[in-house]
Specification:
CATH superfamily of the largest domain: Type I PLP-dependent aspartate aminotransferase-like (Major domain)
Bound molecules: pyridoxal-5'-phosphate
CATH topology of the largest domain: Aspartate Aminotransferase, domain 2
Structural class: alpha/beta
Number of strands: 13
Number of domains: 2
CATH architecture of the largest domain: 3-Layer(aba) Sandwich
C-alpha cells in the first residue's frame, strides 16, 4: 500500500511539474452568473449552463414538486423497477422536441455514449471518428471493439479515404460531436451525411453542446441543417444548456427498443432520479416557450467575443458561444486563469489531454443570463491580466 501511494505521489508531482495537475474547487452557491468560492463572489464564465436554466424558477419548482411526489432516488434500474413516470414523460417530450419516433434517457452523456457505441458496434464493424470527439465517444469506440478509424478534425476528404479503406466491414458508422466541446466549431454535417449516403454508412451525432445552443428553438445542428431524418442516432445531454443532469439518445423506435435490450450502461445502472428528470422536462418546456433565450445567449457571446478581441486576445475558430482563448502552453493558461481568479473572474484553464499538446486555452462561455454589466466586469479583468502577462 505504501508503495502504491508513493508511486501515485510521484505521478502527481510530475503532473504538477508539467502544469497539468488539476484541483477541485468548491463552489458554495448555485451555478449562476456569479458564484461564491471561499466566501468571495466570482463571475462565472466556465459553465455549460448556457441558458441559465440550472436556477430557473420553473425548473426548480418542477424538481421540488417531483421530489415531494416521488422521493429522492429511482430505487432500481429502469428494467427492474426504477422506470418512474417522470422519466417516461421526459422521453416522450424529448422525442417530440427532436422530431423523431422515440428517445431513451441515460444516467449521463458519458454513459449514453459508451452504452450506444458498445451496443451497436462490434468487432466486425468500423467506427469512423473525428479526432477531436469527446472523450466519452472515444471510450465508447474502444469499448465496442470495432475497428476505429480516426479522421482528421472535420476533414471529409480524410473521412472518405477511411470509408474506402473500411469498406469490408459489416457496418460503417460515422460518429461526431455536432459542436466540438473545447473549440466551439461545427462538424461538416451536410458533407458527412452525403458521404454516409454514398457508402451506406450510419451517422451518430452527439449534440451535447448543440441542444439549446444551435438551430431553430435550440433543437441542435442536425435540425438547423434540415438533416434530422438523415441522422441515425441523435445524442444530447440534459446537463448543459438544459441545466439538469442525464442524457438522451433519440431516433427510431427500433433503435430505442434495441438499446433498452442491449446498452449495458442503461441496463446495469439505476434510473435517473425522478426530480432530475422533472427538472430536465421543465427546462425543455422553458426552451420551447422562450426560444429568445437562445438569441440572448448568442448576443452575449458576440458581445464578449468582441470585447476579448479588443483586449488583443486570440480566439480560436469558433462558431458558437464557446470562446476558446488560445494560450498554447499549459503554464500560460494556468497563469492567465490564476490572474483572472484573483480579479474575481472564474475561467478554467483547459489543458492536455482534454486538448492536444500545445493547444492549452481558456474556455470562456457566457450564458443567456449574464447582464452586460457582468460581461463588462469580466472584460475589465481579462484586459488587466492580458496586460500584466504581456500577452498583447
Ligand atoms: C459533456 C459531454 C458529454 C458528457 O455528458 P455528461 O452528461 O456530462 O456525462 C458527452 N459528449 C460531449 C460532446 C460533451 O461535451
Amino acid at each position: 500500500m505504501a508503495m502504491l501511494d508513493s508511486a501515485l505521489e510521484t505521478a502527481l508531482h510530475d503532473l504538477e511539474h508539467r502544469s497539468l495537475r488539476r484541483v477541485l474547487r468548491v463552489v458554495e452557491s448555485a451555478q449562476d452568473t456569479t458564484v461564491v468560492i471561499g466566501g468571495r463572489r466570482f463571475l462565472m464564465l466556465s459553465s455549460n449552463n448556457y441558458l441559465g436554466l440550472a436556477t430557473h424558477p420553473a425548473v426548480r419548482e418542477a424538481a421540488v414538486r417531483a421530489l415531494d411526489i416521488y422521493g429522492a432516488g429511482a430505487g432500481a434500474s429502469r428494467l427492474v423497477a426504477g422506470n418512474l413516470e417522470p422519466l417516461a414523460r421526459l422521453e416522450r417530450h424529448i422525442a417530440d422536441f427532436k422530431g423523431v419516433e422515440a428517445a431513451l434517457v441515460f444516467g449521463s452523456g458519458y454513459l449514453a455514449n459508451i452504452g450506444v457505441l458498445s451496443a451497436i458496434a462490434g468487432p466486425d464493424d468500423a467506427l469512423l471518428s473525428d479526432e477531436l470527439n469527446h472523450a466519452s465517444l472515444i471510450d465508447g469506440c474502444r469499448l465496442s471493439r470495432a475497428r476505429v478509424a480516426v479522421y482528421r478534425h472535420c476533414d471529409t476528404g480524410h473521412l472518405r479515404t477511411l470509408l474506402d479503406e473500411t469498406r469490408g466491414a459489416r457496418r460503417q458508422l460515422i460518429v461526431t460531436d455536432s459542436v466540438f466541446s473545447m473549440d466551439g466549431d461545427l462538424a461538416p454535417l451536410a458533407e458527412i451525411v452525403e458521404l454516409a449516403r454514398h457508402y451506406g454508412a450510419a451517422v451518430i451525432v452527439d449534440e451535447a453542446h448543440g441542444v439549446g445552443v444551435i438551430g431553430p428553438g435550440g433543437a441542435g445542428l442536425a435540425a438547423a441543417l434540415g438533416l434530422t431524418r438523415e441522422i441515425d442516432i441523435h445524442i444530447g445531454t440534459l446537463s448543459k444548456a438544459l441545466g439538469a443532469y442525464g442524457a438522451y439518445v433519440a431516433g427510431s423506435s427500433n433503435l430505442i427498443d434495441y438499446l433498452v435490450n442491449q446498452a449495458r450502461s442503461f441496463i446495469y445502472s439505476t434510473g435517473l432520479p425522478p426530480a432530475i428528470a422533472a427538472a430536465a422536462d421543465a427546462a425543455l418546456g422553458v426552451l420551447e416557450s422562450a426560444p429568445s433565450l437562445v438569441e440572448r445567449l448568442h448576443d452575449n457571446a458576440r458581445y464578449l467575443r468582441a470585447g476579448l478581441e479588443r483586449c488583443g486576445l486570440r480566439i480560436g475558430a469558433t462558431a458558437t458561444p464557446i470562446l476558446p482563448v488560445m494560450t498554447g502552453e499549459s503554464a500560460a493558461a494556468l497563469r492567465f486563469a490564476h490572474g483572472l481568479f484573483s480579479r474575481g473572474v472564474y475561467v478554467t484553464a483547459i489543458r492536455p489531454p482534454t486538448v492536444p499538446p500545445g493547444a492549452a486555452r481558456l474556455r470562456v462561455t457566457p450564458t443567456a443570463a449574464h447582464s452586460r454589466r457582468e460581461l463588462d466586469e469580466a472584460l475589465a479583468g481579462f484586459g488587466a491580466v492580458a496586460r500584466e502577462l504581456a500577452l498583447v
